[in-house]
Design goal:
The complex is a heterodimer. By secondary structure, chain A is mainly alpha-helical. Chain A has one domain. By secondary structure, chain B is of the alpha/beta class. Chain B has a single domain, classed as Amidase signature (AS) enzymes. Chain B is built from 14 helices and eleven strands. Chain B has an eleven-stranded mixed beta sheet with strand order 1-3-2-4-6-5-10-11-9-7-8, with helices on both faces. In chain B, a hairpin with a 5-residue loop joins β10 and β11. In chain B, α2 packs antiparallel against α3, α5 runs parallel beside α6 and α9 packs antiparallel against α11. The longest helix of chain B has 26 residues. Chain B starts with 9 loop residues before the first helix and ends with a helix. Classes of the chains: A mainly alpha, B alpha/beta. At the A-B interface, α1 and α2 of A face α9, α10 and α11 of B. Chain B: Pfam families: Amidase. Chain B: This is Aspartyl-tRNA(Asn)/glutamyl-tRNA(Gln) amidotransferase subunit A. Chain B: Keywords: Transferase. Chain B: GO terms for molecular function: transferase activity. Chain B: InterPro entries: Amidase, Amidase_CS, Amidase_dom, AS_sf.
């Protein structure tokens, strides 16, 4: 994919996700948010490592305490 | 006591309160006087609760006279970042969206500090919702750095850092999701500790990111921080993240020194990092040398994952959770947020479910790296707090800066206790700092190392010049 194609694809993805999320971005803020979106793609690529299916996410869930909605 | 009251530690103030040479009313009047004199140039406060403070102080004096002693915070003035709920006192989050919100109940930390006999001076500036600024498009101005008011105090607990550094109070509560306690502590030259995730209840503190938020103090000295943390730590059955375990006496081994300790320096985090100021790097080397001279063995940590992975992991989780919290307002009234806050939090909308799960998988791996490898080899770790001194407050801000001068995010990802401590000053007279990082629920060792370093270097005895602030 050429750089121009990649840029167009990225812009298309941004616009599609904006619409899917039901967001109306103020026109004067769109470019700044798009720049952030591009940077975010680099960050999310950084999250991937070789892993087995058994590599679980963080989070400790203790069954008797995970739901606390009232004082004891 | 003849020293200026702002130079007395919480422990020294406590001695004065108990031997009759001081009253809480006198200490509180002194703090309120400094706030009236100095805060117009620093904007550390959103709300000063002067009447409430004098009532709290009078009550503390009566109780101490009657023999009721609530402990080291009894009669001591403090402040709260304005995201901590306070019954009957507005809690704005420094935002137009909550400008007139007056909570009906106290946050757990506010309640605990009141029970400990603390004197609430007021509510302190923050970056909007603990994530924006410094911003000039909000209902309240941004706080400024007491060492040079043309520079920012860091954020998001900006008012807490500025107020403590300027001697308006010895201690204040902040919150830290990616460095919001340690950043302002670093830029303002005070102590800031992000405790272990789960040590302090977050209930009643406006959330930014559920799995990354931590509550903790910014204080003038290590001992002041230990006393404050002692007052707020402990189990809260209603906070789902709070750990049900005993809280140790954080001061029990405060003066035990570092002789024989093994300390790991996370040099790979910053050695080749773009933007690391040479004077910051040199100050960390000097701090490591000081700890060696006190009897610790300090060596570089080998095999750490790149800092960028810790940072990416934390930023993705933070953005996703922050967006979920603010989704409704971002959809319906995005322009009511400050520009920076809106442009940053909005990015959470573009994170996929797979991205978030991959971030959480990486989070487990990085937490294991720090705790199952590094902290098995070392008693504590050292890392920079910030790679630079405080930037100018009018420095251009990007919506989503990829290069971030703070090196605090890794320990929000892992949940370890991490304390920022002053380690000198830049050529321009701004504070430099480092982090001391400990094992889970081992704040006592973090304080112990910090106390040894602080006693050996005495950076805490330096103060910003009030005349420069008053003249502004």
């Amino acid at each position: 994919m050429s750089t121009d194609d990649r840029t167009a694809s990225m812009r298309h993805a941004f616009e599609a996700m904006t619409a899917l999320n039901g967001l109306t971005l103020p026109p004067e803020r769109v470019e700044t948010i798009y720049e952030g979106f591009v940077g975010l793609q680099a960050m999310t690529a950084d999250l991937r490592r070789p892993r087995t299916a058994a590599a679980e996410p963080a989070g400790i869930f203790v069954p008797d305490t995970i739901i606390r909605s009232a004082a004891p | 006591m003849t020293e200026p009251l702002e130079t007395l530690s919480i422990a020294d103030l406590g001695t004065g309160l108990r031997n009759g040479s001081l009253t809480s009313a006198k200490i509180t009047e002194h703090c309120l006087s400094r706030i009236a004199e100095l805060d117009p140039a620093l904007n550390a406060f959103i709300t000063v609760t002067g009447d409430r403070a004098m009532q709290d102080a009078a009550k503390a004096d009566r109780e101490l006279a009657d023999g009721t002693d609530r402990g080291p915070m009894h009669g001591i003035p403090y402040g709260l970042k304005d995201i901590y709920d306070t019954a009957g006192i507005r809690t704005t989050c420094h935002s137009k969206l909550r400008e007139d919100v007056i909570p009906a109940t106290d946050s757990v930390c506010a309640e605990k500090l009141a029970q400990a006999g603390g004197v609430l001076l007021g509510k302190l500036s923050t970056h909007e919702f603990a994530f924006g600024g410094p911003s000039f498009d909000l209902p309240f101005p941004p706080a400024r750095n007491p060492w040079n008011r043309d520079h920012g105090p860091g954020g998001s607990s900006s008012g807490s850092g500025a107020a403590v550094a300027m001697g308006m109070m010895r201690t204040a509560m902040g919150s830290d999701t990616g460095g919001s306690i340690r950043g302002p502590a670093a830029y303002c030259g005070v102590i800031g500790i992000k405790p272990t995730y789960g040590l302090v209840s977050r209930r009643g503190v406006f959330p930014l990111s559920y799995t990354m938020d931590h509550c903790g103090p910014l204080s003038k000295t290590v001992e002041d921080a230990a006393i404050t943390l002692q007052a707020v730590a402990g189990y809260d059955a209603i906070d789902p993240a709070c750990a049900d375990m005993p809280v140790p006496d954080f001061r029990a081994s405060l003066n035990a020194g570092v002789k024989g300790m093994k300390i790991g320096l996370l040099r790979s985090f910053y050695a080749d990092a773009e933007g690391m100021a040479p004077e910051s790097s040199a100050a960390i080397d000097a701090a490591a040398e000081t700890l060696r001279s006190l009897g610790a063995e300090v060596e570089d940590v080998q095999g750490a994952s790149p800092f960028t992975q810790y940072n990416s992991c934390g930023r993705v989780i933070l953005l996703a959770e922050a967006y979920a919290i603010h989704e409704e307002d971002l959809k319906t009234r995005p322009l009511d947020f400050g520009q920076l806050t809106m442009e940053r939090i909005m990015l959470g909308a573009y994170i996929s479910a797979a991205d978030l799960v991959q971030a959480q998988r990486l989070r487990r791996e990085l937490s294991q790296e720090v705790n199952s490898i590094f902290l098995k080899q070392y008693d504590v770790l050292l890392a920079p707090s910030s790679m630079t001194p405080a930037p100018r407050i009018d420095a251009p801000q990007k919506g989503f800066p990829l290069a971030w001068p703070m090196q605090t995010m890794p320990f929000n990802v892992t949940g370890n206790p991490a304390m920022s401590i002053p380690i000198g000053f830049s050529d321009s007279g701004l504070p430099l700092s480092m982090q001391i990082v400990g094992g889970y629920f081992d704040e006592a060792t973090v304080f112990r190392v910090g106390q040894a370093y602080e006693a050996a270097t005495q950076w805490h005895l330096k103060w910003p010049e009030p005349a420069l602030v008053e003249a502004a």
